Amino acid sequence: MIQDDKDKHIDEFSGIETTGHEWDGIKELNNPSPRWWVWLFIVTIVWAIGYWYVYPAWPTFSGDGFRGGTQGRINWTQYKQLEESQNEILSRRAENLEQFQKNSIEDVMKHPQLFAFAVAGGKSAFKENCAGCHGSGAAGARGYPNLNDDDWLWGGSIENIYLTIKYGIRTDNPKTRASTMPSFKGMQEEDLKQIAAYVMSLSKGWRYTAEGKTKYEQMCLFCHGQDGVGNPSLGAANISDSIWLHVEDSNPGIVSQIENPKHGVMPAWEGRLDDATIKQLAIYVHSLGGGE
Amino acid sequence: MLNKHSKIEKNSILMLVCVVIAISVGGLIEIVPLFRVETTIEPIKGIRPYTPLELAGQDIYIREGCYGCHSQQIRPLRDEVERYGHYSLAAESMYDHPFQWGSKRTGPDLARVGGKYSDDWHVGHMINPQEFVPESIMPSYSAMESRDANLVDIGAHLATLKLVGVPYTDSMIENAYDDAMTQAQEGNSESESALFERYGKNINIRNFDGKKGVVSELDAIIAYLQVLGTMANLKDYDPDILIKETSPE
Predict the structure, then answer these.
(1) How many cross-chain Cβ pairs, A to B, lie less than 8 Å apart?
(2) How far out from the chain centre does Cα A44 lie?
(3) Which regions in chain A score pLDDT beneath 50?
(4) Is A67 close to B42, i.e. CB distance below 8 A?
(5) Pick from A94, A124, A215, B179: most CB atoms within 10 A?
(6) Which chain A residues touch B if contact means CB-CB below 8 Å?
(7) Nearest residue to B70 via CA among B225, B227, B246
(8) CB count, 10 Å around CB of A91?
């Protein structure tokens, strides 16, 4: 059927013009799209052209232009926006951070305002970067040291904490501290048990054999020291206290550590965090209670 | 004008012409620019294709649906940069097929997780995440510990990626299986130097899961996680480069 403007088909019921088609007695009303919808559609097209003109939009065919794309009329980029928003907070921090560059950690710690700034900044950096292993409250986990107590593998002075955070332990960093406990696999089981018994005696006062003590002095004393007090410069643990990092404080646990020593790895944060943040972290960790 | 549509609807040639015009406009605006999208990739040094072991790790990452909870894109916004580090560059994911950008962060963003935790931590955390992060809702993936990484067809996988533009060389494809075994087992200096020669110096060669003998899925996924975000030479990156002269390698 061909519709002619002069020959309009009007639906009797609604009074609205129909398309003229008929299917089994059903006709289609020829309502126009709502005007507000049509205008909105046109506005979005105009908006898109304006947006394209003002903001970076397309890669260019030649690869020229800002980051290989069209630049936009107002030279806006998200990178500039980021830089501006960072500048704002950096300038607020700069006053304090400058003091971190100029002064040693010891001097910073004597200054109440800087100390408070460092503890607050360190706490927030700790939550993001350290809490994964050492726990949100720095209480550690099996294999990951508790930082609240005064037992330190590599020393608990502010300087040592700073070095440990910056260069890590047993990492690829050239300045890392990396000494490891050798494996004594292949020793007689009886000897191992006697050494373990002597080690247990150091913290618990249990009985031990003279052979056990002699073997300890021959093989373990150099690093772990007289009476097992450890040596932070070698990362040798204090084995005369009740704090055990990798194994249960039991004879079999100690035997397994002597045979197959477990070693923790602390990532180096140099390069990932800036020096001021590392100093803040060191001060925060030192302030948790166990700092020497 | 609004009621003239019947003219188009009753003339098939006119209809066809209008359809072609409408699609052409959409295509020109939305599709054609994408053919040149590689011009917007930053010229940054250090980005290399994944080694076969890392690639096997990415396969596991995709299989386990890690992207459902973890994104791999740090947006250039202040709070994200403060938390996760330098914003992600397009160049850093140019060899990802498919991209792992993601948009859902139930867990943290992983774009720069490489080197952040020790291998041991990853092993323990995959087996029981709550041991280290009690408030975590990540499920355990302990099955990976005892499953061998699927390296049988890893060479074919490299060859497939080469088809879509990842610059794997023939010798990389040929030696893919051996390279994967080398990367997960320290000690063979000869094959290690061959691996370095093929992929560059910036490769972690370690026994990632701490167990000798087999190359497990844990080895593969940890090798992958430990390289995320560590390739780009960000120190050389200058966000102020306005005009780009060289295309990325």
Answers:
(1) 97
(2) 42
(3) 1-3
(4) yes
(5) B179
(6) 2-3, 17, 19, 30, 32-33, 38, 57-69, 78-79, 81-83, 85-86, 89, 128-129, 131-133, 135-136, 141-144, 264-267, 272
(7) B225
(8) 9
CA distances from A164 to A152, A158, A194, A223, A285 (A): 11, 10, 34, 19, 11
- Report yes or no: B77 and A82 within 8 Å, Cβ to Cβ: yes
| pLDDT at residue B170, rounded to an integer | 96
Cβ–Cβ gap B133/A131 under 8 Å: yes
Instruction: Please give the pLDDT value at position B249.
Output: 41
Predicted complex: ipTM over 0.90: no
Residue B175 Cα, gap to closest chain A Cα (Å): 26
Q: What is the pLDDT of residues A11-67, one digit of tens each?
A: 888 888 888 788 898 888 888 889 999 999 999 999 999 999 999 888 888 877 777
Residue A228 in contact with residue A239, Cβ under 8 Å?
A: yes
- By Cβ distance, the residue of A63, A81, A272 closest to B244 is A63
- pLDDT of the residue at B8: 86
Note the pLDDT of residue B3: 63
pLDDT number for residue A7: 63
Question: A143 vs B120: CB contact, 8 Å cut-off?
Answer: yes
Q: How many CA atoms lie within 13 A of A163 on its CB side?
A: 18
> Does B2 sit within 8 Å of A33, measured CB to CB?
yes
Same fold, A94-177+266-286 and A189-259: yes
The full set of domain ranges for chain A reads 94-177+266-286, 189-259
What CATH code is assigned to A189-259?
1.10.760.10
Calculate helix-pair angle for A189-204, A251-259, nearest 10 degrees.
120
Do residues A265 and A169 touch, judged by C-beta distance below 8 A?
A: yes
**Across the interface, which of A32, A79, A267 has its CB nearest the CB of B117?**
A267
B240's tokens: 């102020």
Selecting from 1.10.760.10, 3.40.50.720, 3.40.630.30, 3.20.20.300, what CATH number does the domain A94-177+266-286 have? Answer: 1.10.760.10
Nearest C-alpha neighbor of A145 from the set A86, A272, A31, A230: A230
Q: Closest to A265 (Cβ–Cβ): which among B118, B133, B134?
A: B118
Contact yes or no for A63 and B133 at CB 8 A = no
CA A61 to chain centre: 40
Task: Write out residues in chain B with pLDDT < 70, as ranges.
Answer: 1-3, 239-249
